[in-house]
Amino acid sequence: MPVLAYIHHLFNADSCHVYIHTLRWKDRPLQCPRCQSQDVDPWGVYHYRPGCKRYWCNGCKRTFNDLTDTLLHQSKRSLAYWILATFLLCLSCSSRRIARELGVHSCTSYRWCWWLRNTALSYETDRQLAGTVEADDLYHTAGHKGQAKGGGKKSLGRRARGRRKKREPGRGHYDKDRPAIIAWVSRQGAVVIQATRDFTVKTVQKAADLAMQAGSRLYTDSASSSRALKGYVHDYVNHTRKEYARGDVHENRAECLFSLLKPYLRVFRGISKCNLPGYVGFFQFLRNFRQQNAFEQVGLILRAALDPTIARKARRGEFVKYLDHFDLLQSAIN
Ligand SMILES: [Zn+2]
């Protein structure tokens, strides 16, 4: 369905609430978010928030509504703001752009973006590829943007180097502010993208075990770390000999994915390396649900955001910890 079929709902507060109400209770039983009792009765609506349904719980003798304990709970902004913010996020806008378009403070949109991104990551934590998989690696410059202690214009204790760090020669490494990004692209459609500290044999082996089922068919380039992989039916093309495809053996899908990932990351004008897994993970979500349009992706994200358990974890940033492979892989090396 085209976006136009959804967007007119945004102009009416009632239809926004109907949309959220449907998303929240569509495939979950109507139950109290506090005591999980299903013995609930309707309890009118709010004067100041038309359309938001209220319920009385006979178990804990308290009221709740469609938004209680969700990611949108106690937000001063109306639902149209939230739906539009999620929509713009799925169109890969930066948080500053969203702040400008919605007319909210940039701190608000930054917070929302992280919560919503983290919520989307709940779909990606257990993803593992099977079948035929292509893999490639990339080093991406990511420094300390926004990581000054206390924020603002405080002294960093070093010379400021501007947003875009000059590239050092040689291979990248987390400590050189150029962590590696490894992409695993299944020919059946799904992708897994991991930000890792480096591209050594041990890191790649560990990353492969997380991304793919054992015994999958794997095609890579001739990088020595890829060639040393164990546990997969492996073949590679030799780029130094100008060999890019040999029959079925190529990794063009992985290269293509990077050509999409790079402009996606450019939008943010420099990324802190501690935030890189979150951005990369959200891009993975967008790629894995690319058959759906932005509003259908909004539906997916908000459906997860309306689950109290997922909302609590998303606010704490717990899903991104599953996808943060910097420390995980380091502990595997030590
Ligand atoms: Zn209750």
Biggest beta sheet attributes = 5 strands, mixed
Shape: globular
Radius of gyration: 22 Å
Strand content: 5-15%
Portion of residues in helices? Answer: 25-40%
Give the terminus-to-terminus CA distance.
Answer: 50 Å
Ions and ligands: zinc ion
Number of strands: 10
Low-confidence region ranges? none
Number of helical segments with 4 or more residues: 13
Strand order of the largest sheet: 6-5-4-7-8
Q: Provide the succession of SSEs.
A: HHEEEHHHEEEHEHEEEHHHHHH
* Structural class by secondary-structure content: alpha+beta
Give the rounded overall mean pLDDT. 88
Describe the structure.
The chain is globular. A five-stranded mixed beta sheet has the order 6-5-4-7-8, with helices on both faces. The chain has a three-stranded antiparallel beta sheet with strand order 1-2-3, with no helix packed on it. Strands 9-10 form a two-stranded antiparallel sheet. The protein has helices at residues 4-7, 13-25, 79-90, 95-102, 106-121, 201-211, 224-227, 252-266, 276-288, 294-305, 308-316, 318-323, 325-333; strands at residues 40-45, 53-57, 62-65, 132-139, 180-186, 191-196, 217-221, 233-237, 245-246, 249-250. Strand 9 and strand 10 (249-250) form a beta hairpin. Helix 5 (106-121) packs across helix 10 (294-305). 35% of the residues are buried. It is α+β, with helices and mostly antiparallel strands and 334 residues long. The structure holds zinc ion.
